[in-house]
Amino acid sequence: MAVTACSASDTEPESGGVSPGYVSKGWVEREVMLHILDRMLTDNEPEEKVEVITGGQNPLFESHVLKEDEGGHYIEFDKDEWDNEEVPLHRVDVALIYATNFDEVTWCGEPVGGEEFFDSYMEEFWDNLDSHDEYTASIADYVDCGDGRV
């Protein structure tokens, strides 16, 4: 998981140029981790764990991927709100890997490690869907304990 999430290109397919419907593996991995972490923050006693899972000074806070309001911590899914000039995307990816691997997925039955939950999705769905919208719907369903087939 760590190797592909840190790839330099997030938009260029190997054949060169960007096709309109191209979905990179890095983008899918990031979306899966964002959704898993969002659910961890909702379901896994987030206030006690957010400092531990993010490691204090953290690219997730610095880039505005992870935010806090009066309701607690939450994930900012709108990429236009992120600050990737101060914090390069590869640092965000590494922080997401650390955060999702730190805790367990406890809301879908038997607890399973975040990394295992992530890997299961990627093994089943990577390169099987055709658009960002299809992946987004599939990921949301999977993280909400569905089968990911939407």
- How are helices and strands ordered from N to C? HHHHEEHEEHH
Helix content: 40-55%
Total E-strand runs: 4
Rounded mean pLDDT score: 84
Q: What's the main sheet like? A: 2 strands, antiparallel
Going across the biggest sheet, name each strand in turn.
Answer: 1-2
Question: Please, how many helices?
Answer: 7
Task: State the end-to-end distance.
Answer: 24 Å
Helix-strand category = mainly alpha
Which strand-content bin applies to the residues?
5-15%
Q: Quick one: overall form?
A: globular
Low-confidence stretches: 2-13
What Rg do the Cα atoms give? 15 Å
Fold topology:
Elements: H1 2-5, H2 25-43, H3 46-54, H4 59-62, E1 66-69, E2 72-75, H5 89-102, E3 104-105, E4 112-113, H6 114-125, H7 132-143
Antiparallel strand pairs: 1-2, 3-4
Overview of the structural elements:
The protein is mainly alpha-helical. It is 49% helix and 8% strand. The protein has helices at residues 2-5, 25-43, 46-54, 59-62, 89-102, 114-125, 132-143, and strands at residues 66-69, 72-75, 104-105, 112-113. The strands form two sheets. A two-stranded antiparallel sheet has the order 1-2. β1 (66-69) and β2 form a beta hairpin. It is globular, with a radius of gyration of 15 Å. It starts with a helix and ends in a 7-residue tail after the last helix.
